[in-house]
Amino acid sequence: MRLENKVAIITGAGAGIGRASALLFSKEGAFIVAVDLDQSANAKTAADITTLSGKTIAVTADISRKEDVVRVVQQAMASFGRVDILFNNAGIVPHGKIHQTAEAEWDRTMAINLKSMYLLCHEIVPIFLKQGGGVILNTASATAMRSVVDRAAYSTSKGAVISLTRSMALDYVRENIRVNCLCPGTIDTPSLQGRLAAFLDPIEARKQFVARQPMGRLGTAEEVAEAALYLVSDEARFVTGTALSIDGGFAA
């Protein structure tokens, strides 16, 4: 198995890409620390992993808060004694141009999409340094490569994720810590379904989302999870500082 006996912290594990990655990583032998603010959804992911004979703990946390992040890492270490993989995946997708974005919404976006990664890496990197290495994977977005309308705060946060990824990759390359990020296109997840429901015509809105994808379809969480698995596995041992597009040609 590609992740046998590795310990992986995955944020946003209750749904979408996080859930698909947690299930896949577990299937490949990893012990999963499933982290999500939605306690019920996170518990369902953990229960499904257990049903498939995997090992996991579920931690309910707001990862934009330092005290919650410290608790996540403490519980991971108490349960498994080490951490090998950190997958910073949780995020939100606010809509709006800059003049339509309230200060509170801007701050919330940066806190969840960007500050959370700083907080988790701040706690995990010392562990990796002590252990002699580790892997960090961040979820950015195709909109960090190619802008779309009404995503000012979101695209800004995800562009910063790419920059953070590259900076960390260079900072820790000699310490055997690899840092990469994924840039997904439009992925058919519960998050997307919730955003579509807010449109006056959700069916037409979905058609427009599909139309902007060169492949003519939306991606799946499982397809992104496969890319995540590659980047956190030893097969990608010569890969660091990369932003991998998995977007059906959206940013081409």
Number of helical segments with 4 or more residues: 8
**Shape, principal axes of CA atoms:** globular
Distance between the termini: 33 Å
Describe the sheet with the most strands. 7 strands, parallel
Question: Can you characterise this structure?
Answer:
With 252 residues, the chain is α/β, with parallel strands linked by helices. The chain has a single domain, classed as NAD(P)-binding Rossmann-like Domain (Rossmann fold, 3-Layer(aba) Sandwich). The chain is 48% helix and 15% strand. It is built from eight helices and seven strands; from the N terminus they run βαβαβαβαβαβαααβ. A seven-stranded parallel β-sheet has the order 3-2-1-4-5-6-7, with helices on both faces. β1, α1 and β2 form a beta-alpha-beta unit. α1 runs parallel beside α2, α1 crosses α8 and α3 runs parallel beside α4. The longest helix is centred in the middle third of the chain and has 29 residues.
Question: What are the main properties of this structure?
Answer:
252 residues; 48% helix; single chain; globular; alpha/beta; seven-stranded parallel β-sheet; 8 helices; Rossmann fold
Topology:
Blueprint: E1 7-11, H1 16-27, E2 31-36, H2 39-51, E3 56-60, H3 66-80, E4 85-88, H4 103-131, E5 134-139, H5 152-172, E6 177-184, H6 190-197, H7 202-211, H8 221-232, E7 243-246
Helix pairs in contact: 1-2, 1-8, 3-4, 4-5
